[in-house]
Structure formats: structure tokens, C-alpha cells
Automatic annotation (TrEMBL), chains A, B, C, D:
Homotetramer. Its cofactor is pyridoxal 5'-phosphate. Belongs to the threonine aldolase family. One of its GO terms (molecular function) is lyase activity. Keywords: Pyridoxal phosphate. The keyword Flavoprotein does not apply. GO terms for biological process: amino acid metabolic process. This is Low specificity L-threonine aldolase. Residues 2-292 form the Aromatic amino acid beta-eliminating lyase/threonine aldolase domain. The keyword Isomerase does not apply.
Amino acid sequence: MQFFSDNSALVHPKIMEAIAKANHVDAAYGADKWSAQLNEKFGEIFGAEIIVHPVSTGTAANCLALAAMTQPYQGILCHEEAHIVVDECGAPGFFTAGAQIIPIGGDGAKINPHMLTHIISAIRDDVHQVQPACLSITNASEYGMAYTPSEIRELADIIEKNNPANNGRRQGKIGLHVDGARFANVVAMGNYSAAELTHLSGVDALSFGCIKNGGMNAEALIFFNTDLAKASEYRRKRAGHLHSKGRFMAAQLLAMIEDDLWLENAHAANHAAQIIASACGDRLLYPVQVNEIFLRLTADEAQKLRNQGFDFYDWGVNGARLVTSWHHSPADVTPLANAISDLGEFQAS
Amino acid sequence: MQFFSDNSALVHPKIMEAIAKANHVDAAYGADKWSAQLNEKFGEIFGAEIIVHPVSTGTAANCLALAAMTQPYQGILCHEEAHIVVDECGAPGFFTAGAQIIPIGGDGAKINPHMLTHIISAIRDDVHQVQPACLSITNASEYGMAYTPSEIRELADIIEKNNPANNGRRQGKIGLHVDGARFANVVAMGNYSAAELTHLSGVDALSFGCIKNGGMNAEALIFFNTDLAKASEYRRKRAGHLHSKGRFMAAQLLAMIEDDLWLENAHAANHAAQIIASACGDRLLYPVQVNEIFLRLTADEAQKLRNQGFDFYDWGVNGARLVTSWHHSPADVTPLANAISDLGEFQAS
Amino acid sequence: MQFFSDNSALVHPKIMEAIAKANHVDAAYGADKWSAQLNEKFGEIFGAEIIVHPVSTGTAANCLALAAMTQPYQGILCHEEAHIVVDECGAPGFFTAGAQIIPIGGDGAKINPHMLTHIISAIRDDVHQVQPACLSITNASEYGMAYTPSEIRELADIIEKNNPANNGRRQGKIGLHVDGARFANVVAMGNYSAAELTHLSGVDALSFGCIKNGGMNAEALIFFNTDLAKASEYRRKRAGHLHSKGRFMAAQLLAMIEDDLWLENAHAANHAAQIIASACGDRLLYPVQVNEIFLRLTADEAQKLRNQGFDFYDWGVNGARLVTSWHHSPADVTPLANAISDLGEFQAS
Amino acid sequence: MQFFSDNSALVHPKIMEAIAKANHVDAAYGADKWSAQLNEKFGEIFGAEIIVHPVSTGTAANCLALAAMTQPYQGILCHEEAHIVVDECGAPGFFTAGAQIIPIGGDGAKINPHMLTHIISAIRDDVHQVQPACLSITNASEYGMAYTPSEIRELADIIEKNNPANNGRRQGKIGLHVDGARFANVVAMGNYSAAELTHLSGVDALSFGCIKNGGMNAEALIFFNTDLAKASEYRRKRAGHLHSKGRFMAAQLLAMIEDDLWLENAHAANHAAQIIASACGDRLLYPVQVNEIFLRLTADEAQKLRNQGFDFYDWGVNGARLVTSWHHSPADVTPLANAISDLGEFQAS
């Protein structure tokens, strides 16, 4: 059984079924009944009037959101270990036509509010310095750490209060984007409302993850600040992310939220992670909040686990990363938990 | 029955089946058995060692190919009515980071060799002028006209002979790209080999269309000049076109060429177009070679056809465009052919 | 005596003097008395509140203006033979991060209003087509033809009336830019006011030429639509066009307009051109309105002139281009005029 | 007397003289005797065959060099406080069309070799991570700290040994660029040869500063790796940095190196800085190696100095930055040194 990443997990049967159903109609470029329902159906989930743009990867969702907020001569505030910085081959620079990353530190790949305040307040509003146009956070973070609604609100307040534009030359507020590749896992974990994790806490746009949660090839770029959506339609087209048979993407997204499938899947993944985490004790490098486990593991111990048929990524020296997904049942992961317990106390080799 | 475009046609059952089968495996980013077979299986179709990159839209395939050949300060030779110029919202400028379109004329949206020679030979090799880096042709063209292998070879010879780089400063040959959104229809129509329409005639890269021919969301960017493929992997990733569950795209592409499904579908679409064309007589604006019919039609006549349940795009004043696809059977289109015949002689209103 | 181009002419003594004077002060990035006067002094010339950005080349002035009006996913309407299209190595694509050129035809490199109307009115406001964001005209044109105020107004009305944005999705008016590398020559020729050739006729931004008219390395990018100026300050900096010793550029620009030096120089260049034109008779390919002469000339005739010490560019077969500048006195050009007269009637060889 | 920056200092009389002389010739775009001598004359300074491109700002020189080494999908290794990161409004992202900054730490804004090794060796050669294409260092650094030839060689060895490309996919070596806005000050300070500070230590391109050292508007972009120069000619043109009257830039650059004026000016600036530094004692935040002094200074102390007619930039709380230039004579700065001495011991307020 492998725990490399949820990004390759099987597609949920209900999603496959929805895709099959969407094949009985002939309509191009979103002129279909599935695409037509996206704004309303997702609007119900978020309790707001929103605009939803389906795209086929998280990178596209993230960077179209950033491009909608950021001019080429501006900057993107984000964690120095954010996915957009370390795992997308420079996609933000591509979609924004050269906007500069302004990296912020913080534990567990979560932005430290003090560091954010320090950096943003030091930016002079003159033409020599890159002016920040947006803040992008990842919820859950690269290390599986979740932001609470109040933590998001705190960051939103910082960028509002310290916006260099308030001093003069640059117009407009600094936008707030959430990379929500594992947004469902956060909602499920904290029993939060989708609203309080987003627009109620100052979020302008969300990359709503579907693929890691049982989808095939559809993510939802959601604009709470609907003024940002218009230009984004052009950007999506010229980036090659407008599908002529978009009905298959829309159908996946609708199936994902129907009867709360997205939460059901997220709960399953989170639960599987907790079972494994419960066996890790002091081995845990970060508290397990959603579906990622980072643990101390020597090369020998890793080999032992692999010999028993469990596979995963090494994480530096004496470390490992395991990710669970919707299709990992308790029965699937219990043997792994037991195998980890059997390793006994961690002792760095 | 609608004839707006083949880009929205139903997905062929064999493709749906292949997608379903690809769901029984968990492997990310092309580390799956389907992706592993692409180069070899497509290489057999083209009789060459090639590299295949699956992407989810024709715009992505076209523009990644252009970006692989063109530096930001160079130019793209193509027909002034090419899809990349008039129908992709400036995507070439986005993927190449600003390369300039150098438009060429020609009937039926096919490049006129004399016009190409005239324009390219007038470009001085100095820093003031945009130096052409590639020529992109569309086969079949926007008006459903096909280039023969010898016509492609003629164009390839022109860009080779007149390459300003030969005079000095700029290095490398001018690349040749084929937008093959309807490549299958050309092969099927002319009973050509895939090889003679591409690398045997000097083609470096091909956008091999799958979606318009019964696929769901996969096109194949094929590099015959495999040196171009390396950098393109990075570009594909940062453009958000590398799918974590790429196995579903690879599976579609393999199913499309298995047992020549791609040609079977193309033959069906071409045949349906011929049935309609045979009823058009003098109404035809262009000879019908593949699956697009452009015909003279007054507003009244168009209304008559729509009243009988046939729908399509108007094409300027007194004109209409009809596109057939793999799922239009002779039984489907014969009524339309009869309806057109019943209109009698065309008389401009 | 050479007539290749006014772009290399000597710098006028008064400009050299102004540069020397600006060396007695130490102040960086426009915090000097010369830079401080630009908006006011140029505002007097144009009878309007304007913002002036000094830059060191016409390409920078033109493309910063275009970038201020055009998003990367939009288009630039301009003549197919405009300097920005054929002589700036794709600079518009660079400064706008990929905006597409939408070429328009017209005699003498002046935009034909009917062709502009035809092209712009055919653009659908959908995401597949590049939406025009600005129209750039060159006054005087590449062939030395001038637009009158009413001709400019006619074009301004066309882009206003046919703006696809009026139908919906895209916001804002289409901007109007004038490449005025030889703007002074037009004002001098037609005895127009600078105002009627620009903001009074709907112009948003002007590249005010100084270098071809006796300057050293300063052009003035003038914003009549001052809302465009703010973001342009950032673009100018990141393009490397903000000079720390900008006082030397500001001093040139002020000296150029002081006591109407700009018009004096332009009159001299225009007058020299008229003296030469008067000797060309039927040889003229275009009427000589400012300081460019295009004439029929066989290779033998060209050689004869060169043997007498006159040099210039050939213009295709049996053609030549001569450009006069501020430092060509009547005494300088009369011998050339005589030499051309001595050639007698033109007879194509 | 002001000590804000050397970037606004007066232009040296010999440079003004050279500019005046260059006005007696009419030749465009580098077809003049001054431009023709650049490669040879600068080649003598560096003891190598080089190619010199004059540009009008340091930002243009730096970013054209980076663009010559870096594809849009690659990365730029540099100090997190480098001028290209914090003071050029994102220019690297503009000139490279989106390349990502990969920030490195180190004291005094000099790259720490261990940190460089740590970061570069952690980059996997896969498409998800930005692959470094060049390393840019600033000599002297933003804090006036100089790299010795052996320190530069150490960094060159690190990027050579740890080049991810050596593992596979990416081709070519990682380029090494030096931002030498104050290169002359380093040569003068250490009595180094220009060669050992550049190509003999693995440097591919240098931004040779002239403006901060008594020039008006010319910097020299020098390619030691001459293969990089060809494409850069196109980039320079489309960036609006090719001057039609480039002879005035070339003349400045030649005058700057004639009879070692560049070193004479740098020695004067360095000497003035030493006089001031000698009065600062424990106040110094960094050792003064070239012409920048960073010292502890309370607000009251700063006011006292300003009351005596000395002006400079505050540097955070209780800090100040003073920069000397070629035209600061010992007689000019001695009063400042005395005034600082009179402040007595520093005591944080």
C-alpha cells in the first residue's frame, strides 16, 4: 500500500459516474447544464455570491488567482516553502508575467504574523521596491498544518493595515488568496464552515481542491471578490485552461459537493492519518491535523516498513512523509500503524 | 441535431472505457503504464522515435510547441487567420513571453508559398526586425483545407532557404509546427501516412488532435525534433498542464490510436461531411475536404433549416459553417442534406 | 553629406549647453529643478494638465505607453507597417508581456479608417478573440505622412463607437497613443497646435520625440490621461529606464521647448526636405509633408549621387529614402537638389 | 554637503569633454568610431576577448545579463538583499519573462558559501522545482563589502559542482554574473586586476559601473562568455536600450577607462570614505572597504550632523548610511569626520 501522495489517488466512483453521465450531451465551452449550476451550487456551500472557474490543475487555479490580483511589476507575499514557490516550476512568474515572490517565514509552512508584519511594513511605497499586490496562504499548509478562521483574519488585517498603497501611489487593497488543495480536509478537521475559512475572514479567491480528494482532473477556482473574475476568463483561455468539453469538469465538481462527498472523503483521509499518527508518538515532526504525517524514521526503519509493503517519500535524513487519501480505509492503514509501533522508540542512527 | 463544432462531440465509448480502466491504479505524474507507452505506441504510428507530451487542450499543445521553438524576442510565421492568431486569446504571446506574430496570407487559410517567400526574404537580419523562429501551419486549415505532404515540404524548403539566420546573427533553423486539431481527418481523407504529413516533410512538432475526434480532455504534443522536448517539460509544468493523474490522459491517447480508432472516427466525420456537401452544389464556399462545410445560405434559408432542427453557426452574411464529427452517422446527416437540397438554388437575398 | 536618418543627427548646441549646466547639481532620481518643471512647462505647450516621463529612447516611450493601456491578454491596434511592428524587435510584446498586434492597412503607413472600422467591428467580445485595448498611430507616419487633427478625431471616434467592451465583458475605453518621433515636424508643417493634434482629438498618451530633432538621449512620454501615469512609473523603473541622473534628460527636454527650439529645428528639417522634393518631380513616391523623401531612383542614378558625396538608404528596387534633419541648411541640400534635377526624367532600368 | 549616494554625483569633466567631442560626427546605432573601440579597449583592461554592450542604467545591464543566462522557467540565485531583489522593482522578472529569484543569505549582503551549497544541493532536477540558471553577486555588495577573487572562485566552484543539470535534464552550466555598480571601487581598494575579479574566477558577465563613478548615463554590460552576447543584442533593442546616438555612451565609457580615470575616481571615493570611517570607531556597522559607511547614529546625533550641513540617509533606527563619491575631496569630508568625532561615544537612545 502506498502513501506517496493523495494527488494520485483513485477517482471516487461517484465522480466516475458523473463523468459518464456528462457524455450524453453535446455542448461546448461551458454552455451545458453542469457548468451552468456551478456558481449557484458552490455559492450554497460558501453562503455567498461567487464565481467558479473550473480548471484542470491546482497550479492553474493558484496562478490564475494570483494573476487576477497582481500586475507584472508587483509582488506576491507567501510562505517561503509554499507550493507556489517550491513545487510549481515558477508558475506564478509565468502567469503574472514576472511578479516577484516576497517570501515570509513561519513554522509548519504557516505564515508567521509577526514576520509578515515586519516584512510588509518595511516596504517603502516607491518605485524601487516591489509593491505587494496579494498574499497567498496554503490551507492546509505543505506540512499539513491548518489555519483557523481567526488566524486567517489576523493575516487579512495585517495586509490591510500595512498596505503601502495606503500611503499613496499604489491603488487597491492587497488581495488574499488561499491555496486549498486540501481545503476539504481543513473544513472536515475543524468542523468549520467553508464561509468562515474564506470570505468571512477576508479571502478574495480560493483554489478549491478536488483532485487530491477523489476527483480526476478538475479544480475549482473560486472568486469571492467577483470583480476579479472577468479578466480571469481571458487569462484562463490564453493559458489553455478553458476546455471545450468543460462539462466533464463541471460534472466532477458538482458531484464532489453533492451530499457532501467532499467532506466524507476528507474525513476518511483525515481519519486514516490519525490512525497512523496515533502509532507515531514522539516520532511526529508536526502535529497531524489533516492527512499528512511527517515522522522521524531511520533508513533502516524505512526499509523495514517498505519490506512490509508500505511505501512513501523519505523526508530528508531520518525523516519520512506519508499522505493518506479518501480511499485509505482504517483496515488499510492499521497494519501500517502496527508496523510503526513495532519499530519502538526512535533513535537517530 | 447540431453541427456547431466537433470540439463538443460526445466522447467515444472506447475512450470512456479506457478512462474507467485507468482508475484501478494509483500512480502520479506519468509514472504509470499508460504514460510509459506513449512514445513507443505513437512512434509506431509515425514510424519514428518521438516524444509525446499529453496536454488537456489544443491551445496548450500549440503554444507549448511554439514556445519550444521561439525565444521571446523572435517571431512566429503563420497564416493571418490561423487558430493561434484569431481563436486563442493571444496564447502564443503568453506561452512565448511576447514573441510576435508575423502574419501570412493565402486562400482557404492555407499559407501561400509566394507570400511566405516574399515576407520572409524581406526580413533583414538586424536587431530592429523580429527574426522568425518558427512557422506554424494548420492541417486541416480553419476552412477545412488540407495541406498535402508536398505542399508542406515546399513550405519547409522556403523557411530553410530564406532563413535570415543563414546570413549571420541568429542561430538554428526555423522550426515547423503543425496544428493538427483535425490531423486525423487529413490522414483519413488523403490516405496519407502520418509520417509523410510530418517529419518526412520537415515538421518538428505536431499538435495531434484527440478531443475533436472523440476524446475527452487529452491532446498529444508530439516532438519529432526531440531536442525540443526537454525544456518543454518545464514549460508544461509551470503552465499548469502537467496532470498528477496524467494516466487518464495517456489512456485516452492510447485508446485513440489502438486499432486505428482515430482514423475510423475521422472517416466517419469526413463521410458525414461529404453527404452534406453533395447536397450543397454551388453553395459551397470552399471544397469540402475533411469535416467542415462552409456554404452560402440566406438568413431565411438558415431559419428554415433551424426550424427542421438543424443548428450551426452563421458565417458572416449569407453564409454558414457546419462541422460534422465522429458520431454523425449517415442516417443523422442525410435529412440535413435533403433539407439543403430542398432549398434549391442559392439566391443572395 | 548623409541623409540616412535624423536619428543620428548632431545634438543642437543649446541642448549641449543645457546638459553642461545640469552638471552643477547633485540630485538623484528626478529630485532636481529640471525634472520638477517638466509637467508644468510641457503642460503650457499642450494647454493641459499632463504628466511627463523622460525616457532615453523612442522604443521605451512607445512601449511604456502601450503597456500603460494594455493588459497582457489584450491587443494593440496599429498600422501593419508601424515602427512598433517592424522596427522595434517586438518591443510591444516585451513591455506588455505578450499583448498581440492587430495590424491595420492604409496608404503611406497611415491607418485607413474603413479598414480600422472593418477589423474592430468584427471582433466578438468573447474570450477566444484578442480584445483591443489601444490604438497606436504614428504622426508623422513611417512614410512621412501626417495625420490632421480631424483625421485623428475620426479614428478616436471609431474606437470609441466600436469598442467591444461596450457590449459587455471588457471594461474601459480603448486608449489612443501617438508615436510622435517626428511630432514636431507635423506641428511645424501644419502650423497646428500641439493640443489639437493630441488631447483635443482624443489622444491619451504621446511619445514626444526629441532625439531626432536635435536631442541627445531624451524623449518625453506624455500622459494626457494622467490616470495612466501612476503604474507607468513602476514599469519605467523595472525596465531600466529611470535614470539616477535624470536631470540631464529633463534639462534636454526643457531646452528643446524653450523659445520653441523644437519647432525651429523641425522647420529647418522640413524646409530642407522641401528643397530636395522640389527637384524630384514625378520621382516622388509619397508627397513630402515633413522631413522624409521617398523617390524613384535607379541603381545607376543612386550611384551617381553617391559619387557626388550624397548618401542615403536604398528603398527596395529603384527606390531611395532620404531624411533631412535640423542641421541640414538650405546650402547643404541645394547641391543635392541640383544633382537630382540633373538626373532628368526617371526611367525604370 | 550631501552623502546620499554616488548615483547622483557630478559627471567628471573628462566625461563631459568626451561627450562634447562625440557631437561632431553623425553616425547611428553604434556605427561610430567610439563604439567600434569598446571591445578592444575594454578587452585590454580585462586581458581577454570580450564583448561590450553599452546601456544607460545599471538595472538594464544587470537584467540583460540575467536574461542572457536564464530561461523564463529557470531561477536566479542571488543574495536575499541584492540590488536586483530589493531595489529594481522586479526588473529581473521583467527581463527574463518570469524567472524566479532563489534567495541566499549571508552577512554584509555577501553570499554565504555554505548557505549557497545547502540551497543549491537541495534542488532536485525535476520539473516541479525551479532549476537555477545563474548566480548573481554584487561586488561591492549593498553594504560596501567586497568579494576577493578567491571568494568568487569558491562560489563559482560551488555552482559548477552542484549544478542539478549535471544529474540530467537541464543543459549547460550555471552562469555567473557580477553586478559591478561599484566594481571600480573594489579594484581600487584591493589593488586587484580586473581579470582576477571576473573571468579568471569564473565570471561570465559583468555590469561594469560607470554612472556612480563619474559618468552621466552609460554602463557597460561586459560578456566574457561571448556566446551570451548575440541574443542579448536583440533583447537590448526590444528593451529600448539601444541608442541611435550610442556614440555618446561609448565616448563616456572610453573616457572612463582612458588613463585609468575609473580607478582614480574610485580611489578618491574610497579615500574619502576612509577619512570618515576613521572617525566612527565603534559606530561602524560594517567594515568600510569601499565608499559606503554604515554607522550607529541616534536621531539626535543625526540632527546635529544635519544642522552642520551634512545630509545622508537614515538606516533603520539609530543608524545611518553615508556614501562618498569621486568628487568628495579630503577637504570636503574632513569636517564631517570631525563632526562625527565630536559626537563622542555612541549610546543608544
